C-alpha cells in the first residue's frame, strides 16, 4: 500500500482506498465519480435483466463535491464523472477565507482512490504560501503613501527585477536592501501586475473613510412587513467589514439569486456608515435598489440619487449603471462619466453582479484602491477569464454559501432543472449540416421546432407565472406572437418595462417573453417557471442568473421549474452542457426529457464539434 503523506503539523493522511470516488491527476485535474457499481450481499456486482451493471450514486459523491468546490473549479459534468481543475485563483480564494494547504491536502487524500501526485500537493502549497507573501501597508516614512513589503528575504529584490513592476515604485536603497514606495494612483496597477506573475498581494494600506452617512434598518418595512437581517446576510456583511480594519473592506460576497444580495449590500453600507456609490446592470436594477433602500432603511428620498441617462442626481447614496459609466461619444473618446468616481468622497463602492464588470470599470477601479469595494454576485465565474482582475482589484471572496444549503433552509425555492431535447425537421437538419460552425449554433438555437414545445410547456403550467427567456430577437418575436405574450427587449422603454413587471407581480399578466434583459435584476418573486430557448454560447453565469429568476421563495411555498429547450445532437446541446456546469457544482441535476417524436439516438451532423465561449456581456446586447 502507498504510504500516506502528512499534512503540515497534523495527523497522518488517509491512504488511498480503491472504493473512494476521486482521482487526482498530475495536471491538477480532479476526476470525481458520481456513481459506483451496486453489489449484492455476497459482494458481487448486480446486473439488470440485460446483463448490464447496476449503478447507484456513490455515497461519498455529495460530500466530496461540496468540499472540492471550495478550492477547485468544475469543468465538465457528464453523468458519471465530473472533472474539476485546481487553479491559482481557486486556491487563493480558498486561502482568503482561511483554508490552509493542509486542509486542501486532507480533502484530496480523504476521497482519493489512487495515490495523490506529490507535484499537485507541492503546487497547492506553493500557491497558498504565496498568498499574502507580499503586502502593501501605509508608509510611515519615505517618498510614497504606501510601501510594498516582502515576507521573505530577497523576495522584494526578485519582483523588482521586473522592469514593469519597478517602474510603478519609487525604490530607495537602504542597508537592509531596497524599499519600494507606491503612490495611491499606482496601488491597483501594482497589484494587477503582481498577480500576473503569481503573487496575490495582501493589501493592508487602509481606506479613506468617506463622508459619514448613518444608515439604520427599519423594523417594519413600508409595506408593513416585519424586517430583520438573516443570519447569513449579517455574517456576509461582517466577514466583508472585518470590524472596519484593514483585514477587510474589499472583496466579493457570493450568494444565490433570490437570497437577498441587495439586502446584504445594504448591511455592508450600514456597517461602513459612509457615502456610497452603487453600480448595477441596468436602469430597472437602479430603481429596484432605490426602492429597497427606501423600503428597509431610514434613508430619506432626498438621500438616494439616480445617475442614469434619464436623471443625473448625485446624492449621499448614488446608484448608476455600468453602461452609464462606460459611455463615450466614440471608441476613442473619453469615458465622460468616470468623473463620478473621483468627484465625490465615497466611503464605499458597491459592484452589483460583479462577474459582469466591464474592462473599462477595471481600469477606474485600479484607481479606487483607497475606497472600500464590495462585489455582489451569484457566481464568480467570468467567461472572459478575468477572475484574477476581480480578485486583485475588488478583492478576494469573503463569503460564500452553497445554493443547496439555502434551499434546504427555505431561503430560496426548491428548483427542478429540466433539459428538453427537440429534433430538427429534415430540411432544417440539412441546412444546419451545410452551415459554418458559428452559424450552426444559431440555427440550432433558433430551431423552429422549439416553438410548439414551448407552447406545450406553458400550457402544462397554466395558472403559474412563466418567463420565457432567449437570446435572438427574431425567435423571441415569433414566440411572443405564438404565445400572445408581451416581449421585453433592450429597446423596451424603462417605463414600459416597469409597467409590465408590475402587472406580472400583481397577477394581471402570467406570461412574459424576455430577451437578455431578463438575465439580471428582475424582481418577480412569484415567477415559478423559466423556459430558456437560447443563450450566450456556453455561458455558465447566464445559466445561473436565469435559474435565479425563479428562485425567490414563493408566497405559497411552492417550488420552481427551470426548462432549457435545446436541439438534439447539435452545437446547441454541446453548449448547453457547458452552461450547466456551475449549477451542477451547486448540487443541481438536470432531468433529460425528449419532445414528442424525438429519437434519443438521433444526432445532427457536426454535433461533436465544440466552440469557445464568448466573453461575459451586459444584458442590453440583444441579438437580431
CATH uppermost class of the largest domain: Alpha Beta
Fill in the CATH topology of the largest domain: Rossmann fold
Radius of gyration: 26 Å
Give the N-to-C terminal Cα separation.
Answer: 61 Å
| Uncertain spans | 1-11, 603-620
How would you characterize this protein structure?
With about 625 residues, the chain is of the alpha/beta class. It has 4 domains: about 20-130, no CATH class; about 135-205, no CATH class; about 230-400, Rossmann fold (3-Layer(aba) Sandwich), CATH 3.40.50.300; about 410-595, Rossmann fold, CATH 3.40.50. Helices cover about 35% and strands about 20% of the residues. It contains 23 helices and 25 strands. The protein has a 7-stranded parallel β-sheet, sandwiched between helices. The chain has a 7-stranded parallel β-sheet with strand order 21-22-20-23-24-19-25, sandwiched between helices. A 5-stranded mixed β-sheet has the order 9-10-8-7-11. α8 crosses α9 (about 260-270). It is globular and about 80 Å long. Mean pLDDT is about 85; it is low at about 1-10 and about 605-620.
